[in-house]
């Protein structure tokens, strides 16, 4: 019985000694965190979207407070967030242009031709690897919603097989851009002006493009001919609009026989 008691007391004594040493080590080695880090975190979206290049909002906040990156690094938060972070750190704010996700495909499910029945994982990545799933167009949106899943702000909703982007919710984080296996989504500046853009990515010649999709650009050159400002041109069988020359007259959209050119908010 004495042996058991001695063992218990010995173990308890060692535990107490170790606890004291650990407490002393913690006090000596701990790193004091700048209280501004928590303040900055409080102004960030807090969804850890990764658009800033860091794994978490905390990691970005620590770098901002440390002066290692710009106060405007968080694109998802917008200018209001940048202004508040600048006030916390006592530095000048940086005004940046808001960007919005833009999808370069405008054909809904009923307007796209199918080449087969796809039976597999309902993922754009998986379908693209499997010879494009059931979609006849090699360039079109597969519509399984990888972009919707990747969006941390619920700004994308799949309707009729096509992502619908909510302008009010989109922060321009770029997660959807990375998620799309066909590079159909890009970030465009939201400047409050009307823009006319080509909502097709097909490089097929006109006849083949028309056979696979009712809304495809068929390289007819009508937009090039009717544009009074030389803002339209054809590249690889696809119409391209130079936004620097475009005067937003809308003639190209009005004359496009397949509605492959449309008015957009970005």
Overview features:
266 residues; two-stranded antiparallel sheet; 2 domains; alpha+beta; Alpha-Beta Plaits; single chain; 10 helices; 3-methyladenine DNA Glycosylase II, Chain A, domain 3; 34% helix
How many helices does DSSP assign?
Answer: 10
CATH fold-level topology of the largest domain: Alpha-Beta Plaits
Instruction: Give the strand order of the largest sheet, numbering strands 1, 2, ... along the chain.
Output: 1-4
Order of helices and strands: HHHHEHHEEHEEHHEEHE
End-to-end Cα distance: 82 Å
CATH architectural designation of the largest domain: 2-Layer Sandwich
CATH class label of the largest domain = Alpha Beta
Count of the domains: 2
Structural class: alpha+beta
Beta-strand residue fraction: 5-15%
Spans of at least 5 consecutive residues with low confidence: none
What is the mean pLDDT?
91
- Estimated radius of gyration: 27 Å
Helical fraction equals: 25-40%
Largest sheet: 2 strands, antiparallel
Total E-strand runs: 8
Shape type: elongated
